[in-house]
């Protein structure tokens, strides 16, 4: 059993204009292994900021509150230490890494997270089979990480990493954005496989309810104005689908 516990999290960032912007205004959330939580909120509400704070992006400054993983202070850990501890972030805008092949990148990441290089024969099989299930062309293994990939191809790469790195807690920031229906199904199947095979905890950040037809969260949280304003079950997503965020946006001011 693994528990990611976020308490009263406040985060701010220095803006390019030289001012300080408070983005997270008191997030409380607990994610346990084997469960799926959906965070749903309008654009600009601070969802990506929450994911960056969990992963340890240096720009996003925690000014109050805590994040722990099984009681260990995650905020005291470097980005690498967090990954080794079992926290994974699929970024909303995956970065391109020119000159580094996808296969090298994956092996390096797996070595870092597992503490030793994966056995080559087994590893090659593992990568091939994960790529096939995600309907990724084998030729992508030799291409530079995400370089020139379409939005949908980048999202598949994030799920490929997820399946190979097998984290304890996975934060998926809009992994559904920009996917057509077929890609959405392939990507969702991958997330579900990861969770079932590893008893992983999933924090699924999205602003569309359609992914929730494929990935079924036990908990749905409405995120407005830098914090969770309401939590419930899947029925909350149905309400958002029907009525949008208006009721919650009013509650947040
Ligand atoms: P979401 O993911 O919900 O769309 P974000 O976390 O990306 O929201 O952003 C929340 C708010 O904080 C937005 O208004 C955004 O413009 C602002 N913001 C995020 N990062 C920065 C930054 N580095 N500098 C200035 N403003 C930022
Ligand atoms: Mg956004
Ligand atoms: Mg975002």
UniProtKB/TrEMBL annotation:
<dbReference type="InterPro" id="IPR003593">
    <property type="entry name" value="AAA+_ATPase"/>
</dbReference>
<dbReference type="InterPro" id="IPR027417">
    <property type="entry name" value="P-loop_NTPase"/>
</dbReference>
<keyword id="KW-0547">Nucleotide-binding</keyword>
<keyword id="KW-0067">ATP-binding</keyword>
<dbReference type="InterPro" id="IPR003439">
    <property type="entry name" value="ABC_transporter-like_ATP-bd"/>
</dbReference>
<dbReference type="InterPro" id="IPR010230">
    <property type="entry name" value="FeS-cluster_ATPase_SufC"/>
</dbReference>
<protein>
    <submittedName>
        <fullName>Fe-S cluster assembly ATPase SufC</fullName>
    </submittedName>
</protein>
<dbReference type="Pfam" id="PF00005">
    <property type="entry name" value="ABC_tran"/>
</dbReference>
<comment type="similarity">
    <text>Belongs to the ABC transporter superfamily. Ycf16 family.</text>
</comment>
<feature type="domain" description="ABC transporter">
    <location>
        <begin position="4"/>
        <end position="250"/>
    </location>
</feature>
